[in-house]
Design a protein that fits this description.
single chain, 417 residues, mainly alpha, Growth Hormone, Chain: A
Length: 417
């Protein structure tokens, strides 16, 4: 474990910063929309902002193909370093871009370019980093060690939510809308020096099951030999990302701009969701390592998550009570944790080393792009069209049902080395 600790910490730390940089856009979408997508109706500005957030996901599959294939051909560490520079460029553009009233149409175009660069970086990140940790770990500890990738993913919105709470408490509403929302993006630029230093320390020869450098294109081999698990893995990702993006990332905008509740409550809900994920992920990883088969645990977690979505949003939209909001968000997050952490282990083990980074990154990127990225624009459009805050569940529940059946047919292959 002593040898593995710096590997897990390094991979998780920079993954946390990359996810923070990618996801903080969603937490401040309402304020970004007003600055870069002004419209007569505030909901229209919010819709354009969350649509731009979703556009970043469209480039995640391309990032998964390019960076994931690079990781499978050249090495995991080299691929992770490339993703850092792409993410930093996207964050810098968003952090310094002048608003629409200053530069006109160039402002939303620049924000779009920044999101696309972030999408490229995030798309390849999960495959390279997760494959690196898995291949360095003994098979009996994979669930627990890879759970720290989910902890890192949960710490990212927690950092953003805490910053949101601090900024909304210390700044006036006008200052937060004018320039305060830029502060998290400026902080996110720390990924450059910290990420470069940490990942330069990672040894490539620590991996037990890493592929040898080669000229063969992993994507072609993946498509020909592993098409079925790739499709099913993509569909299973929907069951994690849709609850995560509607509960964790969309909650500040939902409670503030749809339910007209204080901004502090929205950020607090995201913080509670993140804290539950941080606590639940290692526990579910430990449990998964003790089970002969992981799929039953995932089926239970996926099924309960699906059943919880409608009643949770019903109570949130009808009671407006702080305790009810936080309890509902916490319950869903507790069951999303094993779906995300243990689900990633099962997908990694389903692909051989030669296409592992590409297969894992591409299935995750496609799942997020097709379902997670569309979640916020779709539910915002449904709410605007129907005037019903419960429209969130109209999208989330059917997607989670589909994901449950994909998981049911997913071929679990627990590898011993």
């Amino acid at each position: 474990m002593t040898r593995l600790r710096p590997i897990v910490v390094a991979a998780s730390l920079v993954s946390c910063l990359e996810i923070f940089d990618f996801s903080v856009f969603a937490l401040f979408a309402g304020w970004i929309g007003a600055q870069f997508f002004p419209a007569a109706q505030p909901m229209t500005s919010l819709l354009l902002a969350v649509a731009t957030f979703g556009v970043g996901f469209l480039f995640r599959p391309l990032g998964a193909i390019v960076i994931g294939a690079y990781a499978d051909r050249v090495g995991r560490r080299a691929a992770m370093t490339r993703s850092i520079w792409l993410m930093a460029a996207g964050v810098a553009i968003i952090a310094v871009c002048p608003p629409y009233r200053v530069v006109g149409i160039a402002a939303p175009i620049a924000i779009l370019v920044g999101r696309l660069l972030q999408g490229l970086a995030a798309g390849g990140e999960i495959g390279a980093a997760a494959a690196y940790v898995m291949e360095a770990a003994p098979h009996t500890r994979r669930g627990f060690l890879l759970s720290w990738q989910l902890v890192a993913a949960a710490v990212a919105p927690l950092m953003g939510a805490l910053l949101g709470l601090l900024l909304s408490s210390r700044l006036s509403a006008e200052s937060l809308a004018a320039w305060g929302w830029r502060i998290p993006f400026a902080i996110g630029l720390l990924i450059v020096p910290l990420g470069w230093y940490v990942r330069r320390q990672l040894p490539e020869d620590a991996l037990r099951d890493a592929p040898k450098p080669r000229a063969k294109v992993p994507l072609v081999e993946l498509y020909k030999a592993h098409g079925k698990p790739l499709v099913l893995a993509t569909l299973t990702v929907a069951g994690r990302t849709v609850p995560a993006y509607t509960v964790s990332y969309f909650m500040p905008s939902y409670l503030t701009h749809v339910m007209h509740l204080p901004a502090k409550l929205g950020f607090l809900a995201t913080a509670v969701s993140a804290c539950v994920l941080i606590l639940a992920a290692p526990l579910s990883g430990l449990l998964a390592d003790r089970l002969q088969w992981r799929k039953p645990l995932l089926l239970v977690a996926s099924g309960v998550t699906t059943l919880l979505i409608y009643p949770v949003f019903h109570f949130i939209s009808h009671t407006h009570d702080t305790a009810t909001v936080l309890l509902g968000v916490g319950l869903i997050s507790a069951f999303v944790a094993p779906c995300s952490g243990v689900g990633t282990v099962m997908v990694l083990e389903a692909f051989p080393a030669d296409v592992r980074a590409t297969g894992t990154a591409l299935s995750f990127a496609l799942g997020v792009a097709l379902f997670g990225a569309t979640a916020q624009p779709i539910v915002t459009s449904l709410i605007q069209w129907s005037g019903n805050p419960m429209a969130v569940a109209w999208y989330a529940v059917p997607v989670c049902v589909m994901s449950f059946f994909a998981l049911l047919f997913f071929p679990e292959r627990r590898r011993e080395g």
